[in-house]
User: Fold these one by one.
Assistant:
Number 1:
Amino acid sequence: MARRPPDPDAPPGRPVAAEPPLADAQPFDNLEALYEACGAPVHRLALRLCRSRQEAEDLTHDVFLRYWQQGRYEPSRGPVLAYLLLLTRSMAINRLQQRRNRWQLVQRWSHQLFPAAVPGPHDSVEQEDLAERVRSALAAIPASQRQVLELAYYEGLSQAAIGEWLQLPLGTVKTRSRQGLIRLRELLFDLRSTP
């Protein structure tokens, strides 16, 4: 692409801005000129979408290569930069989706190749023992604290939802929850230390 001659009225030492060809809806005949005109915005978008400099460089290269090889750009539909940015976004989304699909495939294969260890009798006994300790500790705390903790952990309710459910102020729910957790921790620590 030919550069504009320097402007005689421009202040000295100040670079002359090249005319932006980006609003031009005509296709470029020269890939180098196209890259010089549109490469920076395409790379910035690729970097924002891929979040990796190497992937952004690869994507930028592939966008210009696809533009050049496929020749699908239609000048009547808008500026070439808009087409390239749309192509960049589309290709980035495809790459991210392919990466996610590969990761899911790896996860599936790893579960098939390396199945989770089947708990042995010793593990089952430990889990049953822990469950019994938690049940005993819950039974030992005051009913008001136990009710709040059971709604939070077994029902999955937030403290605000528990307050609405029990018709209690949020501060009361928070206090009962905190006191119940402190008491549970003390009881479970004592149960762990006894044989």
Note: The first helix runs from residue 31 to 50.
Number 2:
Amino acid sequence: MLTLDLTNAPRWHDLAPGVRAQLRPLTTVLMVATRSDPAVEAVPEDASDEERAVAFAKALARRAVLGWEGIGDADGNTIEPSPKAIDALLDVWPIFEAFQLTYVSKGLLLEQEKNASALSPNGPSAGVSDTARPARKPARTARRG
């Protein structure tokens, strides 16, 4: 069942120990605006999927980040989010991965679910039905000579 959050309020997302960001909800308007972001559209046609993903994530984060905690400059002074600071934050691999997992992938997972079958239950044989008929009688074991 799809649960709608009718409040559409920003939420805090933990990105690393002691680092969290307050992000806008991942809405259709936000995704459409990000897809047409000049930085995303400027990615060359021959760019790798990874380069496209980074450009998209940074453009999305520049739109989504409302505030953050636990982020400072080289001198240890707390800094406020800015486009340059947000891009620098996402250049930190663990932060990029956390942003993708806690924020972006939730929206994309819903997108995948509407375009394909529902996810299977966990486990190697979960959700699988038997295709072989049961044996009629137990097999005989080889005689030892």
Note: The mean pLDDT is 82.
Number 3:
Amino acid sequence: MKKMSLILLAALALVGCALSPQEVDVTPRIAVEKPIKPLQGTVSVTVYDERLSRSLGHRGGVYSNTNAITTNDRLTLAIRSAVELGLREMGLTVTESEDVSQFQVYLDDLEYKVPEGSYITQVDLKAKVRVRVVKGDQRFEGVYSSEISERVPKAPSDEKNEELIDKVLSDVLSRALADPRLRGFLKQA
């Protein structure tokens, strides 16, 4: 009887470590330091998802091969909305015209990793974007990255995963808009 209880307890523990696949809905928020003198001008924002897959990685646990964490189809729209808001806070006007400076954001990498094994103790996230601004024959290009590691007492919930992914995306986009070289180019464009 005691042996049967131990087997049942072990089986329940394994089931508790099984995680479902997750499709995240991100809403990054950019922290913009408003310039002393607001920027002037008009830009159009376009976002490109250059990743080879919508998958960020796996949530880990016992069945790590079956619990992919992916982004939904609204990812580029969410990034675009955040960037447009950030540019407006800097003083720029945002439009969809092709006759103005083109502010292009390329999402090159977005990763979610947990340690190998059945017990999740940490989540590592990484994001990388390129920003290209084109105004006539003038061009600016910058590359920005962010890495976040967070210790966790147990496998993160769906809500916690979205919060962590929002955090790494918000950080990398905030770094881009805080770049003095980018701001200097936008002043001239």
Note: Residues 158-178 form the longest helix (21 residues).
Number 4:
Amino acid sequence: MTDKQAIRQAGPASAQATELTEVELVWIEKQIEHWIRFGHETSERLIDRRRRCVSFAPESVFALIRWAANRFGTVSSHLYVVRTVRPGCGFQTVPSVTPGGEILLHVASWPKVERVLSHIDAIEALRIDPCAVAPDHWRHLHNRLATGEPPRPYTLARHRAWLKRHEVSQ
């Protein structure tokens, strides 16, 4: 096989790889813990025993939690709900996410992270995949938490309305 043939064969696979959004996850027990709360991973790659990389297809939604502590307790905690973007589209940078994505929700501080986690649990209790929730709802939740206001719950009726709106717009 010539070099040109090898390049041609590698082209589509490498083009597909650049479309993916990669998230590097670190787990050093009780020091640094990064994990995915929800999302449909397309692949996973182990880097070493404490780090791994997961990939998401374009326009996927996932939740990333980043937590760090020292001997005195929690130093930082963040939760991001991110929608991945297609190549060539604009995006926001997110720590550990390459290249980045559209941030639908971001909260910092463990009490706010816990509120979002309980909100996600309530959505899952309705048997709704959090990945399929209307992006506007994640923005709503972000804005309400930022202003200290209680967010509206996500209901089956809201979800059905979102699905119909999404179907019509496509």
Note: The mean pLDDT is 90.
